Amino acid sequence: MVNNLRITTQENLMSAFSGESQAHMRYLYFADIADKEGFPNVARLFRAVAYSEQIHAHNHFKKLGHLDDGFVDVAHAPFGPGNTSRNLKHAIMGEEYEIEEMYPTYLEIAKMQGEKQAEMSFKWAFESEKEHAKLFKRAKEAVDKGKDAEFGPIYVCEICGYTIEGKAPDRCPICGAPIEKFKKF
Ligand code: FE2
Ligand code: FE2
Ligand code: FE2
Description:
By secondary structure, the protein is mainly alpha-helical. It has a single domain, classed as Ferritin, core subunit, four-helix bundle (Ferritin, Up-down Bundle), CATH 1.20.1260. The chain has helices at residues 7-36, 40-62, 84-112, 116-144; strands at residues 154-157, 163-165, 182-184. A 3-stranded antiparallel sheet has the order 2-1-3. A hairpin with a 5-residue loop joins strand 1 (154-157) and strand 2. The termini are far apart.
């Protein structure tokens, strides 16, 4: 297992844990608002993605088992909850930050530092966030027209957090887990 992680990657894991944890809580809050506003499918999407972020947070946290201390207070995300349209805008901003800046940087550093386990954890999250951004964009288009989004079942891989709408794949395209490992929302 990972021990004595190189310092930058270690801090990046802590920061990513913080960001994923906050995203989890933020999306559960947004789900309640979407329900109240009459967008049950958008609420379901928020709950599915909240579960995916929980998996990312746990995967990152597990890699820090060698620590007996360490505090970090970093999580780059928009604040200011509002109605579902605004919440979706913030969700998209958060996902895009992870896709465009955070995970590509953390991945490069983990590679450079030879931290294979951390690299895998970042990669799994990175690939999931791309799907989250797409789904949130679809939801926002509908909500901005005053309609609920049209979503079939949403599946989340319990191993890597990969999120897909419609039908679960036989094997997770990101981590290779079998179809039984997908949780349905
Ligand atoms: Fe995530
Ligand atoms: Fe995400
Ligand atoms: Fe997976």
